[in-house]
Amino acid sequence: MKKRRLFNDTILIALLILIPVAMLILSNTGENNPDGTVLITVDGEIFERLPLADNAEITVVTNAGNNYVIIRNGEVWVSDADCPNKTCVNHRAISKAGEQIVCLPHKMVLEIVDKDDKDIDSLSQ
Amino acid sequence: MIKKMAISGIFISMALVLSFFEGMLPVNFGIPGVKLGLTNIVSLTALFILGPVSAITIQLGRVILAALMFGNMAGLVYSLAGGLLSIFTMILLYNIRRPLFGIVAISVLGAVFHNIGQIAAAAIIVSDLRISYYLPILVLSGVASGIFVGLVCKYLIKGMLRAKYIHISNPITLDRL
To answer: pTM of the full predicted structure?
Structure first.
């Protein structure tokens, strides 16, 4: 029984390490595309869509507060926000397609998508 | 029965202390949801020495009280989702005979599903179901946390057995350690 248990545990943990690592490697082979678009949604509805290539500063206005988003040099990040936990502000800058910065209290999702990506699979009313 | 209730109460307060202590550590990663999960030590130990019902009670109690005490009511939904999913997964694995999972595997899956529950709740609330970006990182974080917590619990329970503080009659439970 004990041998069986050790075997099961090891297999399970090995799977749980290998599969995510494989997923990470696969997703990182898509590199910085200057073609990308920054998609900002609030509560499921598209707030703004900006090209990643153009420097910009935008204030995301939500019912719960504001987030100040900066796009510069192909990266995007949240410079300031009036949400309680500031997780979005502390998050490092994102630049690759698929990466996200989320502000839960404001229900804001900041995501980088490919320009021709049909992103209507987010739940919107 | 009353003894179990009293001990469960003590367990909840221990979990709250661990939660507070964990909050004092400098936040490491900047990725939401990556944490040590020290409080799961209490939940997992409760599952093994007090039984599933007490484990659920302790998990519920510590999640709700932590949110109340540390002023984080807004985060209660996510913690509750993750915490409940976690304890139910662990109970499920605890009751499965074949394949037999040890305490470390139960802990790992509990931690992973704790993260998945939190992310799923966030995805629903934010109305954006594209969570796949965070999943690999959270699973890995859950594995790391789960291994640590699982090993702590394993040697904790073994030590308590050897010191005759507790007694476990179920041989299958003993096999899991």
So the answer is: 0.84
